[in-house]
């Protein structure tokens, strides 16, 4: 009797373990949600959709992009942080939301609330304006802005993020008085730029391929290969470098095999010629960093931008 019970128990355990193994091996077995913390059509959304479209082919399940904008991207990131860590809710995030916003606002999540899958693109922040603007280059704009203090509007998506801080330093360096107006998304800013209600926006280069705008200056020491027609801040005598990387995160506690599945699929996509060529067409550049390297980058830049913000934002 005891032997029969033991046999049944062992049989049950074997079946259970096989079933569990099969379930894990099946990931993903239903659609994945990729939260983009900004509106559709902006410099974060465009590369996210490119990545999602290529990754879903490798994973065998749809990746549904969900735009959750507001509070400098932190509303969408908060949704990711609160999700179940099962690999079915991911976030596509830029530098500013992850490394600047924690220093300027109280957030419902900690800086250790995430696992990191990998990075997808990285390019300098670019200051953009309408193609029909009254200035034809950055020097003409600086001259006009000096003659017309508080006339020109800079659209930003949040105080203290990557659309704001570079422009604060730019205005201070050249002695300009500019007006900063917050918007919910980059897409809304560009609509107003093309309508003439707003004049400038600092964003990821991908927006150059989507809206009727051009780049005035890139916040870098050297001209990027695919942005060779845009002067750098160094050429203007300004020491300012702001890099706009983007990557994929997940809620903390992701099973290791799920993380590896996502990391492998993402690595294959970002390193593929198809993704790299499409990224160049979008005026951005593919840039792969592994899960471990991405986490290290995040930790380093979280500290770096914390120091920058001490001197860039007005102290209370």
UniProtKB/TrEMBL annotation:
Domain of life of the native organism: Bacteria
Residues spanning the signal sequence: 1-25
Q: Name one Pfam family in it.
A: TctC
| Entry keywords, A to Z | Signal
InterPro entries, per this entry? BUG, Bug_dom1
Question: What family name appears in the similarity comment?
Answer: Belongs to the UPF0065 (bug) family.
**Record's protein name:** Tripartite tricarboxylate transporter substrate binding protein
């Amino acid at each position: 009797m005891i032997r029969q019970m033991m046999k049944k128990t062992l049989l049950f355990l074997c079946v259970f373990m096989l079933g569990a193994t099969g379930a894990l091996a099946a990931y993903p077995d239903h659609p994945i949600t990729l939260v983009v913390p900004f509106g559709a059509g902006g410099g974060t959304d465009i590369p996210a959709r490119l990545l999602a479209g290529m990754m879903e082919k490798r994973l065998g399940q749809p990746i549904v992009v969900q735009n959750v904008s507001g509070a400098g991207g932190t509303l969408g990131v908060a949704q990711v942080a609160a999700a179940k860590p099962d690999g079915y809710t991911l976030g596509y995030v830029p530098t500013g939301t992850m490394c600047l916003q924690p220093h300027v606002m109280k957030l419902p999540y900690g800086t250790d609330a995430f696992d990191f899958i990998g990075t997808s693109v990285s390019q300098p922040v670019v200051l953009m304006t309408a193609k029909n603007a009254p200035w034809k280059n950055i020097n003409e704009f600086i001259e006009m802005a000096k003659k017309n203090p508080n006339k020109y509007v800079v659209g930003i998506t949040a105080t203290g993020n990557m659309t704001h801080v570079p422009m604060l330093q730019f205005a201070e360096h050249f002695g300009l008085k500019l007006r900063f107006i917050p918007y919910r998304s980059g897409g809304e800013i560009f609509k107003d730029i093309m309508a003439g209600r707003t004049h400038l926006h600092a964003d990821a280069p991908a927006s150059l391929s989507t809206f009727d705008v051009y780049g005035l200056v890139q916040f870098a020491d050297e001209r990027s290969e695919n942005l060779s027609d845009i002067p750098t801040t160094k050429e203007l005598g300004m020491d300012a470098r702001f890099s706009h990387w983007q990557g994929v995160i997940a809620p903390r506690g992701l099973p290791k095999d799920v993380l590896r599945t996502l990391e492998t699929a993402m690595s294959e996509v970002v390193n593929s010629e198809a993704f790299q060529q499409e990224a160049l067409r979008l005026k951005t550049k593919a840039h792969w960093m592994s899960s471990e390297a991405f986490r290290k980058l995040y930790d380093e830049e979280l500290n770096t931008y914390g120091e920058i913000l001490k001197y860039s934002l007005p102290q209370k």
